[in-house]
Design a protein that fits this description.
Layout: H1 2-21, H2 28-34, H3 36-51, H4 57-71, E1 74-75, E2 80-81, E3 86-88, E4 94-95, E5 100-101, E6 106-108, E7 112-114, E8 126-127, E9 132-133, E10 138-140, E11 144-145, E12 150-151, E13 156-157, E14 165-168, E15 173-176
Parallel strand pairs: 1-4, 2-5, 3-6, 4-7, 5-8, 6-9, 7-10, 8-11, 9-12, 10-13, 12-14
Antiparallel strand pairs: 14-15
Length: 194
């Protein structure tokens, strides 16, 4: 019973994260019923638990594929997602099997956390806490993106990005960000640093 309450608490955190991060969200009910990013994360949490049981791996993959068909968001059940992940819009999101995503991360539509090689082992990125990945951005290979980093829209990241930096362009170039003003938004648009 304790596991159930803890799981429900994580689901509630996901709702509040979406509500807090999306200025268009009017209520938790709207988020729970109408946000495919939240639905995909919730289904991932079930599939990931199944993935940890060797006898349920096929079922976990089938669940993740059904969710992909329903939401347009593909999250491999073997990926490791942190708490309060917010997927905005979501269509076209891909998160690979060995990807690791920290807490309080924001992914915009079309973002890919993918691999560059067709071999076993760590082949997908690791994102720290409070990372923002812009629309259409591709983070490829076993790269590390540090805490608080931002990946600009349509950037292609194939090298590590230090904490607090912004990566923009194809291939992505790391730029340092100016210190935010006290009135800065919760999530800045990384494209302004291009």
């Amino acid at each position: 019973m304790e596991h159930l309450w803890r799981f429900l608490g994580v689901l509630r955190e996901d709702l509040h994260a979406a509500r807090r991060r999306d200025p268009a969200a009017r209520s938790l009910v709207e988020v729970a019923l109408g946000y495919p990013g939240v639905h995909a994360v919730w289904a991932y949490r079930v599939a990931h638990r199944m993935w940890r049981e060797p006898g349920l791996r096929l079922a976990a993959r089938l669940l993740s594929q059904a969710v992909r068909a329903a939401t347009g968001i593909e999250i491999h059940p073997g990926a490791q997602l942190g708490r309060r992940l917010f997927i905005d819009h979501g269509m076209g999101i891909v998160i690979g099997e060995t990807a690791v995503v920290g807490d309080d991360v924001v992914l915009f539509h079309g973002a890919t956390l993918g691999g560059k090689a067709m071999r076993r082992g760590k082949r997908h990125p690791t994102l720290g806490d409070d990372v923002v990945v812009g629309a259409g951005a591709k983070v490829l290979g076993p790269v590390w993106v540090g805490d608080g980093a931002q990946i600009g829209a349509n950037a292609v990241v194939v090298k590590d990005v230090p904490a607090g930096a912004t990566a923009v362009g194809v291939p992505a170039v790391v730029r340092t960000r100016p210190l935010p003003s006290p009135a800065a938004d919760l999530v800045e648009d990384p494209a302004i640093y291009i």
